[in-house]
Specification:
Blueprint: E1 2-9, E2 14-21, H1 23-38, E3 47-52, H2 55-66
Antiparallel strand pairs: 1-2, 1-3
Length: 67
């Protein structure tokens, strides 16, 4: 299991969060990322992006989990 940063990005706003995923879960989300970009016909439509979480994002994720 790895931690990933997931972003829903549009023209004027972004929603992001960190999520722990198995390899098979990551593959499904990666496919959704590809499809969201493929079917986005204008630049302002939201698309999904996923990347491995960096050190700062992991620190914030752990703080959030402690609440």
């Amino acid at each position: 299991m790895k931690h990933y940063s997931i972003y829903l990005e549009g023209c004027d706003d972004t929603t992001s969060f960190v999520m722990e995923l198995s390899e098979s879960e990551f593959e499904v989300v990666k496919k959704i990322e590809e499809l969201s970009k493929k079917h986005s016909s204008i630049s302002c439509q939201p698309v999904l992006e996923i990347d491995e979480a960096d050190e700062y994002e992991l620190m914030e994720y752990k703080k959030e989990q402690e609440k």
